[in-house]
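Tokens in:
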């Protein structure tokens, strides 16, 4: 019994390690933790409940931007696939291509995304089916590449053109090739 708990803990840690210490209820169950043990693990201080169905390992170092992993996990579908991709102002900030510091998290989700009731107030959702070539992986979340980010901002007209010009200028200075979507 103790061996199986250790194995379940190791499996959960290995998974949570890829998501900056975060995991979902379904992931914990798949690792070997019965759902009726989850409240005890929170009460005992082993897990921290971050949102409905999303936890974080208490002893795992808190990431610089825990909100990015949390809301990325929130965007998962019934198959546990993460659908949200940080985009627009948030991606611009993650790419460090301007001085913009967005107050909200901008996330692009597929047109088929169906989460209307519990959209967090911090999130701005944009509906678009993104090709994989427009997406790059971050530590526990995905965000749009520089070209897609710039096109989204130009199309959306949600920020001052000076920030778009600054982003283009900084990307060129850093040698980013917009044509190859890197």
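Residues out:
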């Amino acid at each position: 019994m103790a061996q199986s708990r250790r194995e379940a803990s190791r499996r959960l840690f290995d998974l949570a390690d890829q998501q900056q210490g975060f995991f979902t209820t379904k992931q914990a169950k798949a690792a070997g933790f019965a759902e009726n043990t989850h409240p005890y693990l929170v009460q005992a201080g082993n897990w921290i409940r971050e949102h409905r169905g999303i936890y974080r390992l208490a002893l795992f170092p808190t990431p610089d931007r825990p909100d990015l992993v949390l809301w990325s996990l929130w965007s998962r579908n019934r198959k546990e696939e993460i659908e949200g991709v940080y985009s627009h102002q948030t991606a611009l900030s993650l790419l460090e291509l301007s001085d913009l510091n967005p107050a909200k998290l901008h996330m692009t989700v597929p047109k088929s995304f169906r989460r209307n009731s519990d959209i967090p107030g911090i999130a701005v959702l944009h509906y678009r089916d993104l090709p994989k070539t427009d997406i790059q992986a971050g530590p526990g979340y995905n965000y749009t590449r520089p070209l897609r980010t710039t096109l989204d901002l130009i199309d959306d007209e949600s920020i001052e053109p000076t920030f778009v010009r600054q982003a283009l200028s900084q990307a060129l200075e850093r040698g980013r090739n917009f044509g190859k979507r890197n």
